[in-house]
Amino acid sequence: MNRIGARAVPGDPAVATLTIALAVIAFFLAGFNVEAAACGTLPAEQQRQQDAEQLQRLRVLAMDMAKAADAIFVGSVTALQRPDRAAQQSGQVTLAVTETLKGPQAREQTLAWDDHFIYSCDPAAMFGNVGFRDGGVYIVYVKDDWVIRSDAADALRDSSLLGLSDEISLLAARGGE
Q1: DSSP letters of the chain?
Q2: Do 147 and 93 contact (CB within 8 A), yes or no?
Q3: Whole-angstrom Cα distance, residue 63 to residue 176?
Q4: Counting CB atoms within 10 angstroms of each CB, which of 18, 33, 95, 123 has the fewest?
Q5: Of residues 174 and 140, more confidently modeled
Q6: Rounded CA gap, 4 and 130, in Å?
Q7: Is 176 a residue whose pLDDT tops 80?
């Protein structure tokens, strides 16, 4: 059967094959991009260098945010009301405080929050994320009774470049400021 002059229709195997072939060719012509490799697929030495640079950026971000924060503490979520974007209502979170790093000592904190989440291969881009889950343990930065940063302080943080104990030590060395 001669296909010259035949119209390509969606679902035609020839069209699918051609599309895939063109995508593969474009990928190879574009070359392997370092930005595309930013999620840990770099050669070991380049990954170590990138991680060291990211860790330095995270330390600077922690110190800058600590200066801006009125309070910093570690606590467990005991009550959680999620923000309602449709109703333009902020959420409210209550945490049992286990460690105060800056600000007044309190056994419990109830704070307003709005979820803010950036997912990125760049840990520094995600530093200002705010979000909570029932029963989760978090390090929380607060400004004007408002959560400006929350990050896991339990097993969910295990793969972080800036570990919780490192972040706490960094803040403690500077008196939380």
Answers
A1: ---TTPPP-TT-HHHHHHHHHHHHHHHHHH---TGGGTTT-S-HHHHHHHHHHHHHHHHHHHHHHHHH-SEEEEEEEEEEE--BTTTTB-EEEEEEEEEEEES---SEEEEEE--B----S-GGGGTT-B---TT-EEEEEEETTEEEEEEE-SGGGTT-SS-HHHHHHHHHHTTT-
A2: yes
A3: 8
A4: 33
A5: 140
A6: 58
A7: no
Tokens 């307003």 appear where? 112
Nearest partner of 82 among 132, 126, 127, judged by Cα: 132
| Number of residues written out for the chain | 177
pLDDT at 128 over 60: yes
User: CA–CA distance from 22 to each of 8, 12, 122 (Å)?
Assistant: 16, 16, 30
Q: Give the residue from 23, 64, 51, 15 showing the smallest Cα distance to 170.
A: 64
Q: What is the pLDDT of residues 24-65, one digit of tens each?
A: 444 444 444 344 444 657 888 888 898 899 999 999 999 999
- Report whether 46 contacts 69 (CB < 8 A): no
Instruction: Say which residues have a Cβ less than 8 Å from residue 33's Cβ, sequence separation at least 6.
Output: none
Q: Which two tokens stand for residue 48?
A: 């170590």
